[in-house]
Amino acid sequence: MKIAVVGTGYVGLVTGTCFAEVGIDVTCIDIDQKKIDGLKEGIMPIYEPGLEPMVKRNYEKGRLHFSTDLASSIQDCEAAFIAVGTPPGEDGSADLKYVIGVAREIGQNMNNHLVVVTKSTVPVGTAEKVKTAVKEELESRNSDLTYDVASNPEFLKEGAAIQDFLKPDRIVVGIESERAEDVMKRLYKPFLLNGHPTIFMDIPSAEMTKYAANSMLATKISFMNDIANLCEIMGADVNMVRKGIGSDNRIGNKFIYPGVGYGGSCFPKDVKALIKTAQENGYNMSVLKAVEEVNERQKSVMVKKVKAHFGNDLTGLTFAVWGLSFKPKTDDMREAPSLVIIRSLLEAGAQVRAYDPIAMEEATRDLGNTVTYAKDEYDALIDANALLVITEWPEFRVPNFDVISRLLKEKVVFDGRNIYDKGELEGIGYSYYGIGIK
Predict the structure, then answer these.
(1) Is residue 18 among the annotated active site residues?
(2) How many distinct structural domains can be found in the chain?
(3) Residue 84 near residue 48, CB atoms below 8 Å
(4) Among 15, 164, 219, 395, which is 20 to 30 Å from 317 by CA?
């Protein structure tokens, strides 16, 4: 079976590589020649645990190919996946120009029946636009080639994407023909040995499923952050509350950890896009607007705690920051709470020494040389007045507090992920500030 994947970003590269891993002949296509040349040499454009060796192995085996030439790469393929970016516009809507551009190029160059699959996160109705774009290009060629469109949203967690793809909870596919269903069934058959289902549905429902899933998870996070803030006011401990509600199987214990807000490439963008889609169709998404509002407010909570302890003017103070990426096991800095927190500290006159196991190079694109980048977590503590933990990387969970005490000027910890025990730290002389803990 031969397929093409257009786009070698996070979704496209993981998708193409995992399909190749089960023996499918895959060509990943991108307009960026430098990126394609790098991939052929085993240089990854993104960080994802386990991805690099899998790319190298399948490229060496001849199952995974990289090209900038879409026209030749889609010849004789059974399916072409569109996995290009859909960046948010100023109004929050998803920009579909790259998706439609690829659809047109497919229509201009396909030479056999093809299932054109949208893998990018796209608003409801996009598949119809893709279908129209392909049709118009075929008509301009006076071609009678047939084709199908399908929607196959991804549900990959950054940091666990390989595992998510190879052993999925579920595979959602929107189709409108038996022929497209047959192609997608054959394509995904190797991934269904764990008994989890492929859920076939109409295309609009598949497109909506992706936005609904991410928006639901974002809602859980913002709800818990709102509860955490109220816990502090009322003298309750959000960690106890979380355990209490998480034991209810109707609620579950996932995505109810309070913190400094969500970030990344999916939740912020998808929440905004769904709100915008609703507005365009005359409906007000009141809950999601509140989710977005709570999340933006939550990113400032830690700085408010810092100022409550040290005062509003932070001139002359230095803060150690552990964690820059929006979550562990990724270098993704998109919408990362660390950016809001660090910029607020700098605006108040402070200096920042930051460390992240993976994301420091990526962080320089946003922060430049406004902060000092440390060689490790302990180096970040030198001459700092306090430690701020923003991203819960595993290596931060059980640090040596004897070493920390010697390096910090003051024994103050602001724990944005509640990974430390308040009582233990206060017992060794620290001032400890968590989220949702009085």
Answers:
(1) no
(2) 3
(3) no
(4) 395
